[in-house]
Amino acid sequence: MTEPKKPVATAANNVLPEGRVREIHVNHRPIPIGSGQKTFERFLGEMKEKLDDPSVERNRLCREVLYDLYYGESGRPYEDLLADPKTPLATKAALETLDPRNVTLEPEQYSELEPEKFYKVKPLTWLWMMYDRSPLGMNLHLGLQFRRLLAKKVFKHCGENVKIFHNVEYSFGHNITCGDGVVIHRYVLLDDRGEIILGDKASLSDFVNVYSHWHHVEDPQHVFMNKTVIGAGARVTYHSTVLSGVRVGDDAMLGAHGLAHKDVPDHTVAVGIPAKPVKVKPWPR
């Protein structure tokens, strides 16, 4: 009697012994073809051209793109629809809100706001937020490319091959340094009131919070700003929180629902509330 062959890890049959699976990122869904792909390429190309053009006024650019996303089927110019007495007031309020100059964002209440930096990127931040809430926001293939375009103009630095999924939020944006190959998953909060550095190939899983400020216990009006670092190749996993001033080391990992209030050393796995080291990964691997 011959022993059964062990499963081989492939894109089609990617099962290992003991029920384990080796994650291989394979594009099972074909890239959009035909008119869809051509339309996306033209849309992204036009966006990049306008973002790179210093003569393009960003508030107007934001308003025009959002109007096309939400009201383009009307076939009427923005100004005409806004001036039409038959347009309901609620619709007019929504139209006015497409212009970031008519919008107040939470960071505008912060005393440390730097107007010259913030108001340069605010139109792109509003465009990012409202794009994610549009029908296009859930299109993974298009959304990753669109957010990458914006991140290169918003962040202090944005490396190559960065993947940012939908509904990621940040405070200012211009205090974020993002290395190459970084992955930021859904609903991540990057509180860059101080400074946040994401090392090359760092990964932030769904619903992660990374903070760079904290309030004095006795006087909450007294706010401290720090630099928070997620090291190269580090993983901050599902629903975890990294507090202000903490460094999650290179190749380190913060377990799901963990709360890092102290530094996590390189190559170390930390879990729990508060997070404590439980394992050191073998290195080099």
Largest sheet: 7 strands, mixed
Helices and strands, in order, run as HHHHHHEEEEEEEEEEEEEEEEEEE
Query: In percent, how helical is the residue content?
Result: 25-40%
CATH architecture of the domain at 155-285: 3 Solenoid
The helix count comes to 6
Q: What is CATH's topology name of the domain at 155-285?
A: UDP N-Acetylglucosamine Acyltransferase, domain 1
Output mean pLDDT. Answer: 91
Distance between the termini: 38 Å
Question: By CATH's scheme, which homologous superfamily of the domain at 155-285 applies?
Answer: Hexapeptide repeat proteins
Low-confidence stretches: 4-12
Rg on CA atoms, Å: 22 Å
**CATH class type of the domain at 155-285:** Mainly Beta
Number of strands: 19
Spatial arrangement of strands, main beta sheet: 2-5-8-13-16-18-19
Q: Beta fraction of the residues?
A: 15-25%
| Structural class designation | alpha/beta
Task: Identify the overall geometry.
Answer: globular
